[in-house]
């Protein structure tokens, strides 16, 4: 089967709406590239020839899989380079134009920079993994050549007589199984085992041999495609390797026609090593299951044990019944019951019910902007609508909030997947907070909720996703300008929200969003004041009505954010002999037995009438602000009482709104 060209993969990817497969294909495809200096070797010393192909001063280079399309008409030399090499060698701020059969595929300089960063990250990740691996022990003296004994019993062996057959029993082989893909094979008993993503790793400390096995359920991937995908990983992450010869077929002892396999060998020096190593990468496919087995060892050890390694491969078995029906490739390539495969599938959308896939930080923030738009609409609606709406309004608002919370949690799960963490941690933590809160009270719930949201903000906005594929799918592709703009608007909204919250706290809290300031005028029209919320009639104290009569006292009040606002108008029926003395008695009443004046009372005048402003601090921490005046036979008082000084701004605004119309 002929491998697909980049143009074919690109066309299919654009039709599917996900460009990720095209980027993977691009970095591995050989292109004809104009060069100004051929250099030594395939890409060493090469200097690419760029030009202003669009006449706007932007440098770009035209490359193609077909020689004739890459020729620039200026007699430039052409070199065959992979897309990854083109990206690596291209100057900064230069673009790539891929000449196709009927059009040009433009890769802007920012996409080139993204590709370069991705390739460098993969190389750095591979180098870090190799640095963390135990250093191989010195290779033993090379014994005589190994001869593979076809009829050997089911088991392997590193010790043998010169030119003799493999002594399988000496290895004391043990059977290893990766149950989820039904893979079975043998390894020597003394090889150390460790786990890796989707597979296992084995170390032979005596020889420096490392065997790694990974497997996936990929019903739509052929053996050729699987080889191509894994070779892309090798070429990206292990540039120091050179392929030795062409791929060759491999066959297991118990394989039938349903199992197919190929192997490729490489040679190279691992960074930090002084000796050359050899690699054998085997690719196996059966019933929608694909497996990659990599064996590496120092070059001399590899040649000594070549027959042993190949014997390992002949004893690999795959359980025919392991792949359940939903994962089997359908008879028709367009069958509606084909299972969606996260690896290489479409990127998750902003709205949906599936928790599969992963999204990067910028896309998560841009999607959050769309998800929160209904919340903004509901907030604006509740501000405009009266507070005493019907049940239907309550149901609509409750449903909107519930749906929004679901989509928010979904985005959090997809973001967790991008850093290779399961979204189950989110639901587990929330359940733990709820359970502990029920057991130990509201304070624990509050602390747990703060910790949860702080952790999610860090993961959501600051921790980058894992490089390349991880357990939850392909790495997200480059972000479009629309995604970048959406993320920027989201960040701006968050900053404005923080500023707004700070402003509301200073003004008296979130309740101000729902409260409508109400201007009130006394029955005689003399006193005008603005309540922060609609006031209601309040029965006056018994001692006041007893002294002046029920009809002589008018008192109103309102409460907002734990602050009580009230006014009192008392008609004394006659002029007081000493208004100042009366003001002093009113001030003493406001101070009470539990309070002290804060900085003393301020003597003011309202028009031509004497007035006083009082600020009182009670022993329990409560604060009272009051403005008092006497006009003819009437006393007027405005009072605000709050649990602490944080509400001073709102209280003082209420007091200062007190004016007289006389």
Largest sheet: 8 strands, antiparallel
Domain module count? 4
Q: Could you name the ranges where pLDDT drops below 50 across 5 or more consecutive residues?
A: 39-44, 137-165, 321-345, 508-513
Using the coordinates shown, work out and report the CATH topology of the largest domain.
Protein Transport Mog1p, Chain A
InterPro entries: DUF805
Transmembrane segments: 364-383, 395-413, 425-441, 447-463
Protein name: DUF805 domain-containing protein
Organism: Massilia violaceinigra
List keywords for this structure.
single chain; 662 residues; alpha+beta; Protein Transport Mog1p, Chain A; 4 domains; 27 strands
Short overview:
The protein is of the alpha+beta class and 662 residues long. Helices cover 35% and strands 25% of the residues.
Report on this structure:
With 662 residues, the protein is of the alpha+beta class. The protein has 4 domains: 6-132, no CATH class; 168-327, Mog1/PsbP, alpha/beta/alpha sandwich (Protein Transport Mog1p, Chain A), CATH 3.40.1000; 361-507, no CATH class; 513-660, Protein Transport Mog1p, Chain A (3-Layer(aba) Sandwich), CATH 3.40.1000.10. Helix content is 35%, strand content 25%. The strands form 6 sheets. Strands 19, 20, 21, 22, 23, 24, 25 and 26 form an 8-stranded antiparallel beta sheet that branches. A 7-stranded antiparallel beta sheet has the order 9-10-11-15-14-13-12. A 3-stranded antiparallel beta sheet has the order 2-1-4. Strand 10 (199-204) and strand 11 (209-217) form a beta hairpin. Helix 9 runs antiparallel to helix 10. Residues 39-44, 137-165, 321-345 and 508-513 have low confidence and may be disordered.
């Amino acid at each position: 089967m002929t491998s697909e060209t980049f143009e074919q993969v690109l066309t299919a990817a654009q039709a599917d709406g996900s460009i990720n497969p095209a980027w993977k294909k691009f970095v591995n495809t050989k292109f004809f590239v104009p060069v100004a200096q051929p250099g030594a070797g395939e890409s060493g010393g090469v200097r690419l020839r760029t030009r202003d192909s669009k006449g706007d001063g932007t440098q770009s280079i035209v490359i193609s899989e077909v020689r004739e399309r890459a020729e620039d008409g200026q007699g430039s030399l052409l070199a065959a380079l992979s897309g990854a090499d083109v990206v690596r060698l291209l100057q900064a701020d230069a673009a790539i134009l891929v000449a196709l059969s009927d059009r040009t595929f433009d890769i802007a300089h920012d996409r080139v920079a993204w590709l370069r960063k991705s390739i460098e990250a993969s190389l750095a990740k591979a180098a870090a993994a190799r640095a963390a691996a135990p250093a191989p022990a010195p290779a033993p003296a090379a014994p005589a050549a190994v001869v593979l004994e076809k009829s050997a019993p089911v088991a392997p062996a590193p010790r043998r007589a010169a030119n003799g057959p493999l002594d399988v029993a000496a290895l004391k082989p043990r059977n290893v199984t990766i149950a989820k893909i039904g893979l079975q094979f043998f390894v020597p008993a003394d090889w150390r085992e460790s786990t890796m993503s989707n597979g296992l790793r084995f170390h032979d400390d005596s020889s420096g041999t490392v065997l790694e096995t990974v497997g996936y359920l990929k019903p739509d991937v052929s053996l050729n495609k699987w080889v191509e995908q894994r070779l892309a990983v090798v070429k990206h992450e292990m540039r120091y390797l050179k392929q030795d010869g062409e791929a060759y077929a491999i066959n297991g002892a118990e394989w039938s026609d349903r199992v197919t396999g190929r192997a490729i060998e490489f040679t190279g020096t691992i960074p930090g090593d002084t000796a050359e190593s050899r690699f054998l990468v085997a690719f196996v496919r059966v019933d929608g299951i694909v497996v990659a087995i990599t064996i590496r060892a120092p070059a001399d050890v590899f040649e000594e044990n070549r027959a042993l390694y190949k014997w390992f491969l002949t004893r690999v078995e795959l359980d025919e019944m392991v792949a359940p029906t939903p994962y089997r490739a359908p008879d028709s390539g367009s069958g509606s019951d084909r299972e969606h495969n996260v690896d290489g599938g479409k990127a998750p959308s902003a709205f949906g019910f599936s928790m599969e896939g992963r999204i990067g930080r910028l896309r998560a923030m841009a999607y959050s902007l769309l998800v929160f738009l209904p919340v903004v609409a509901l907030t604006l609606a509740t501000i405009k609508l009266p507070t005493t709406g019907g049940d239907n309004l309550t149901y609509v608002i409750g449903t909107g909030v519930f749906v929004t919370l679901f989509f928010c949690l979904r985005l959090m799960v997809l973001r967790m997947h991008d850093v290779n963490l399961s979204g189950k941690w989110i639901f587990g933590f929330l359940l733990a907070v709820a359970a502990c809160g029920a057991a130990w009270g509201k304070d624990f719930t509050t602390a747990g909720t703060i910790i949860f949201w702080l952790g999610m903000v860090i993961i959501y906005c600051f921790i980058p996703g894992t490089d390349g594929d991880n357990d939850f799918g392909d790495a997200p592709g480059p972000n479009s300008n629309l995604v970048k703009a959406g993320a920027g608007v989201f960040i701006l909204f968050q900053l404005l929200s923080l500023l707004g919250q700070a402003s509301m706290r200073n003004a008296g809290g979130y309740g101000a969003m729902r409260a409508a300031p109400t201007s009130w005028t006394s029955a005689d029209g003399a006193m005008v004041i603005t309540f922060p919320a609609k006031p209601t009639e309040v029965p006056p104290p018994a001692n006041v009505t007893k002294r002046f009569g029920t009809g002589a006292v008018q008192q109103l009040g309102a409460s907002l954010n734990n602050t009580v606002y009230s006014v009192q108008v008392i008609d004394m029926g006659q002029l007081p002999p000493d208004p100042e003395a009366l003001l002093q008695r009113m001030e003493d009443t406001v101070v009470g037995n539990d309070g002290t004046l804060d900085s003393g009372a301020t003597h003011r005048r309202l028009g031509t009438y004497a007035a006083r402003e009082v600020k009182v601090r009670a022993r329990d921490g409560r604060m009272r602000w009051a403005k008092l005046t006497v006009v003819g036979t009437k006393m007027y008082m405005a009072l605000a009482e709050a649990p602490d000084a944080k509400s001073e701004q709102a209280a003082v605004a209420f007091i200062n709104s007190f004016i007289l119309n006389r």
